[in-house]
Every structure is written in C-alpha cells, then in structure tokens.
Amino acid sequence: MCGRFTLQTSLDTLGEHFLFDIPADITLAPKWNIAPTHSIATLLWNQGKRHYGRMHWGLIPRWAKDNSRAAKMINARCETIREKPSFREPFKKQRCLILADGYYEWKPDNPSRQPVYIHHREHRPFAFAGLWEVWSPPNRQSGGRRWWTVTIITTDANEMTSHWHHRMPVILSPEDYDRWLDPTNDALDSLHQLLIEPAEKNQMSDFEITPVSTRVNRIIHDDPDCIKPDATQQELF
After folding, report:
1. CATH says 5-236 is which class?
2. Distance (Å, whole) CA 169 – CA 175
C-alpha cells in the first residue's frame, strides 16, 4: 500500500522534470510526511498538456452522501479498479499523476513499526498512478465547496520492496505519463497493463531503501528528520 510519502522537491524543479507550466500564484512548501486527507500535488491533462493542481488525498465517489469514505480510499488496487463502482468510471477518463520523491513503508507484522524510506538514489521526483473524482457535498454541506479528490493505485510489490509489504504504489515510467493522463485515450486494456506489470517493467534499479526514525510514525512530525537515516537499523539490510 502507500500511506505516507514525501515531496520536498521545489516547484521549479518539478516543472522542469514533469514538463508543466507553473501557475504564477502557486507556491509549494516541502513536505516530509504527507498523510491521508492532506492536499497533494497532482498532474492532469488539460487542453493537450500537463496541468498542475492540488487534490484531497482520499477519493470520495461523486455519489457519496458524505465525505466519510475519504480516509478509507487513499489506495485503489489495480486488479479491481475496472470492477469497483468507486473506481470504474474514473479509470476510463479521470486518470492523474501524483508527484512524489519518496514514500514510507512498514512491515505489517512488525509491532515496533520500524519505517523505511523508499526513494531514488539521487532523490529525483517520480509519479504515482492515480485516479481523481470531484465530489459535491449534498444539501450545501461545507458551504457547497466542491472537493477534488484522488487515490493512489497499488500493485503487487516487486522483489525489492516485497520484504516490507506485499503491495506497492504504481510508479509510472516517464514515457507513459501522457498516455496515462490523456482522457481521450480509451485503450483501457493497454492502460491497465501499465498497472499490472510495473514490477516487471520497472525494477526500481535506481531506487534504494533507507531505514529511518520512527519519528515519521506521527503525522505531527513533518521535517527533514523524518528521512534522516537511522544507523541503528542498518542491520535490517
């Protein structure tokens, strides 16, 4: 799964790396402990190019009566997104990229909750595959404000990450960004294959896993110490 991640890369660098125009009135503070329900950086397809925006992490189906589902829908299993009512329609035309430069994982059966940080060796940014949805509160709840919401797609863990969890977020290759984003692309079988086989296609040879402090376990902590290597845990590797 993917329950916490980072985005400390500057907005200027993200614009250069992902080839999008940076809105003049936008700023982006570095984040070392992004958690469910936070506002996260995304890319959509708009008028033939990539468009930067912010979304609420935790998808709310447009037919939901309230926002209580959001915290439970931070991830979508790639194997079932074509059947699940919450994801079936977004998969057809509402695909997005979620910008990140690392994510955390914990072994499900480890009571000590020792985290590791999975990232590119040179700390380059990358993109998770995601689905988005717009939810409008009924009866003018929350002032009638529309919520732009998003979920991160997960797949079977590859060899590198399977020691920590049996699932991992889908990390798309740059050459696949545009065809994933383009809502006019209705080659759904081909798009779905990008999600099913990323472990075979992308072995994450440029990534590494770093044991870090349990500081990240509490979402109130959001600072560079969250990704500071924990030398006492190096024996894990």
Report:
1. alpha beta
2. 18
